[in-house]
Amino acid sequence: xxxxxxxxxxxxxxxxxxxxxxxxxxxxxxxxxxxxxxxxxxxxxxxxxxxxxxxxxxxxxxxxxxxxxxxxxxxxxxxxxxxxxxxxxxxxxxxxxxxxxxxxxxxxxxxxxxxxxxxxxxxxxxxxxxxxxxxxxxxxxxxxxxxxxxxxxxxxxxxxxxxxxxxxxxxxxxxxxxxxxxxxxxxxxxxxxxxxxxxxxxxxxxxxxxxxxxxxxxxxxxxxxxxxxxxxxxxxxxxxxxxxxxxxxxxxxxxxxxxxxxxxxxxxxxxxxxxxxxxxxxxxxxxxxxxxxxxxxxxxxxxxxxxxxxxxx
Length: 313
Known about the structure:
By secondary structure, the chain is an alpha+beta fold. The chain has two domains: about 10-80, no CATH class; about 90-310, Fumarylacetoacetase-like, C-terminal domain (Fumarylacetoacetate hydrolase, domain 2, Alpha-Beta Complex), CATH 3.90.850.10. Helix content is about 20%, strand content about 30%. The protein is built from eight helices and 19 strands. The chain has helices spanning about 35, 45-50, 50-65, 100-110, 170, 205-210, 255-265, 285-290, and strands at about 10-15, 20-25, 30, 75, 80, 90-95, 125-130, 135, 140, 150, 155-160, 175-185, 185, 215-225, 235-240, 245-250, 275, 295-300, 305-310. It has a seven-stranded mixed sheet. It is globular and about 65 Å long.
């Protein structure tokens, strides 16, 4: 996959005859993690993340010695990759967290660019997606009959690797196991409850807007945090039918990943495998009034992490 940094390994979930299994992607080959390492508990990515402090060293050693191992390998090109985490206890999604996206949405409504939330004393805020909304790389996602205004939102996803509670922003990234690419699909026309008046505090319906089957494509794997020099300096892009729609950099986040983890962990524990979707940049369909339709092909890419596609149906 173009644009992927040469790392020792990537951690994936692949389809096997025995069901979903944790795989170690090394070059153009995939190894079964439990069989390569001899650790039965590493049969799933969640099992690995729950032992991340030790597992990280085990996987790094296994990647170095894999070429001499007798463990069976299979070609990456012939391997069906699934969403790398199946299934986390929570998926936290940052709202309105890119300066360019916030400015574009404000301009569409005829308003000036919003002020820096730090200057207003605001903290990061998130909504939740259900874990069962995850979709695999390459999956077909049914949108017809559910929403007319289905939008795309490329996001950097952080994967938690240690129990995380009341951590400071300065130490927050120490709790991240790795990163993946996500698409926060959004049913824009399902986000407001008809016929509730626009002024009502009960107008919004975040569940129908953000949580529906297939609304969180994730993949293609997890790149270890140690192989990502700076999560706040990654280019990210999204195409619809080959047309570039989103083209930005994670440096344009209003609240950094570290700030988000700090806020999420206040008096609450984040668990290994939990996902944090860190927000989307400008170029969404809501800004232009154009939305996805059946047959559209969506491709997402983040520098150093990787890329994948999904088809709408």
